[in-house]
C-alpha cells in the first residue's frame, strides 16, 4: 500500500506542478550565459554560478532539461529569443521559477563587460539589474561578481515565503528546513497592494504592502511549513499569495493569543473550511439480470433518475467523516428472456457512512489530494416482486473501503477519480426468490471534474457506475444489478 501511495503521489505531482499560480521569486533558474567569443567563457561561468545557486539557502534552484529543447528551437538567434517575454514566460512555466537569471558577457579590448538581469515569472518585470566593466576575463572573477550581485538581489526580495493554502487559522508556506527555519519562529504576514516601477528603467523598485497579521510556525517540512495565525492587524484574512516575513529571533517561550476574531461575514471569504455539503442529480440507465442453468437469463433494463446529497466534516486538517444519501426511481422493461409481465418499476436508495484520511502531497488543499476511506455502505434496489421472473427487492450492505484522488489541471479546474468496494457484502431479499447467496461482490466507480465557481461554491460533474452481484450454490443462479449515470451538482464549503 505504501508503494502504491508513493507512486500515485509522484505521478500526480509530476503532471500537476504547472497548474499553480506565479512561482516565488525564491525559486530561481539561470539561462545559458551568453558571450561574444563563441561560448569559450560563458559555459564555465554558467557552471560556477549554477553551483552557487544549488548550494545557496535563499534559492530553490529549478532545473528542467526540457528548457534545452525549447531554447534549441531558437539557436539561430538565441539572443533575440531571450529578449522575448513570451519565451521567458514559457521558461518560467516549465521550470516553476520566479527569478529568471540572465547573464551576458561582452568582450572588450582589455577585459569584459558583465551584464546581469533578473526577470520575473511573467517574462516582463525586471526585478534586478547590474552591469560592470572588468579589466580581465577570468571566469572565476566574472562568476564571483555575479554571485555577489545575487547576494544583493536576495536581500531585495520583499518576502521570505508565500502563502500556498489556507485552512481556517492555519496556512501553508513554500519554505522549509532547506531554508534553515524551525518550529516556533514567528512570522509577519503582509499583502502586496501595488508594485512601483522605475519610470525610465522599467524596473520594479518597490512595493506597497499592507500588514495582515502575525503567526507562528507549528510544523516544518523539507520545503513546506505550516503556520498558525496568532493575531490580526487588519480585518482582512490570510489569502493565497500573501507574503510571509520570518522573524528568526523569536523567543520560543512567548505565548500570544489572537487579538482579533473574524466576524461571520468575513469568515465567508476565508479559504479555510470545516466541511462541505453537496447535492446532485443523476440520469442514466440501469439493469437487473438473473440467470440459472434451468431457467436461462431473464433481464430488464431502463432509464432511472436519482437525487443525491453528500456531506463531509473535518475533525482535523486531514481526518474527516462523511455521509452519502441517494434516492432513485425508474421504469424498466424486458431486455431478454421470457417474462410475464414484461414491465417492472424500480426504486433505489443508498446510504454510506464514511471516515477517511486526506493526504496532501504538496502540503495544501489547492494542490493534489488523495483520500483513503472506509465505512459502512448499504445499496437497496427495489423492484415489483415477480417470483416467476426472478425479480424482487434486494439489498447489498457491508464494510467498504475506497480511495479518491484529485488534481488541478488549470486554475479553478480539477479532475477526480474515485473507487470503492465492499468486502463480501451481505445479501437480502424482500421475498425469498433465490435464497442465501454463496458469493457476493460490489464496486463503485466515479470520474469527473470540479470547477471552483466561487470561494465557497464548487460545481462538479462526471460519470458514476455501480455494480452489485450475487451468486448462489444451486442451479448456477446469479443476480447482477448495474447502473451507469451522468452526474452533475454543486458543493458548498462551510
TrEMBL record:
Superkingdom per UniProt: Bacteria
InterPro entries on file: OMP/PagP_B-barrel
Alphabetical UniProt keywords: Signal
Secretion signal span: 1-21
UniProt name for this protein: Autotransporter domain-containing protein
Species name: Halobacteriovorax vibrionivorans
